[in-house]
Design brief:
By secondary structure, this protein is of the alpha/beta class. Helix content is about 30%, strand content about 25%. The strands form three sheets. The protein has a seven-stranded mixed sheet with strand order 5-4-1-6-10-7-11, with helices on both faces. The chain has a two-stranded antiparallel sheet with strand order 2-3. Strands 8-9 form a two-stranded antiparallel sheet. Strand 2 (about 25) and strand 3 (about 30) form a beta hairpin. The longest helix is centred in the last third of the chain and has 14 residues, at about 230-240. It is globular, with a radius of gyration of 18 Å.
């Protein structure tokens, strides 16, 4: 296997929950929890948090983590981690979301394993959801081909269930990505695509440019900290684990 790095983009500014990554979560901050749970998987040759803010940098260094300090403004986490490749030399890059403090070893192992197939350039995760959940535009859905390559991602419920098939499955996209180094660098040089702008989903840029995304099933239910309610739920889950 190639050398593997986990890069965790960590932006300080957030709309729904101000400074969410430095909020307290069981005696540590959200970004510290994300970093430490990524380390605990034991999968990666190196782990970096990529940030543009001194407070996040300090939080990560306080728990022994490595930080790439970004001097540029970026529109997305993918752009942010691509800048860090000036310093990170790994061949396989996994983009771990900074606001997801409970990383799952099996999901990340399964994601990395598909790169044993040399045809796989980008991979991501999907998980089954209910039909009711599929109606939520904040939950991104994905449909795949027979080889589990993504056909399309949408905020709409896809596929459209015209004939009301009872056993129809809906898949939620879980926003953790693995990239071969050269593909990540190429991706961030591409212009925004039409469908990307319509859906506000950057992964559609890859599909519109003919780059396949291999989808890997996971049963792990991630918690992304976007609101105060999410943070309270994460605190309750952590308390139950203690």
């Amino acid at each position: 296997m190639p050398t593997i790095a986990a890069l965790i983009p960590a932006r300080y500014a957030s709309t729904r929950l101000p400074a969410k990554l430095v909020q307290e979560l069981g005696g540590k901050t959200v970004i510290q929890r994300t970093y430490l749970s990524t380390v605990a998987t034991g999968i990666f040759d190196e782990i970096w948090v990529v940030t543009d803010h001194e407070e996040i940098k300090k939080q990560v260094e306080d728990v022994g983590g490595k930080v790439f300090y970004s001097e540029k403004k970026h529109e997305s986490g993918s752009d942010r981690i691509a800048e860090a490749l000036d310093q990170v030399k790994a061949e396989l890059i996994v983009n771990v979301q900074g606001d997801e403090p409970f990383q799952d070893q099996k999901s990340l192992q399964d994601l990395v394993k598909v790169f044993e197939d040399s045809a796989v350039k980008v991979a991501s995760l999907k998980t089954l959801i209910s039909e009711d959940e599929a109606q939520n535009p904040n939950m991104v859905k994905v449909v795949t081909d027979l080889k589990n390559n993504a056909l399309y991602f949408s905020r709409s419920a896809i596929p459209y269930n015209r004939d009301k098939i009872r056993e129809l499955q809906y898949w939620k996209h879980v926003g953790i990505y693995g990239y071969r180094r050269e593909v990540l660098l190429a991706f961030t040089q591409m212009a925004k695509s039409r469908m990307e702008e319509i859906e506000m989903l950057e992964q559609l840029r890859l599909l519109e440019n003919g780059i396949k995304i291999r989808m890997v099933e996971t049963q792990h239910q991630t918690i992304a900290i976007d609101t105060a309610e999410d943070l309270n739920r994460a605190r309750k889950i952590l308390a139950l684990k203690s």
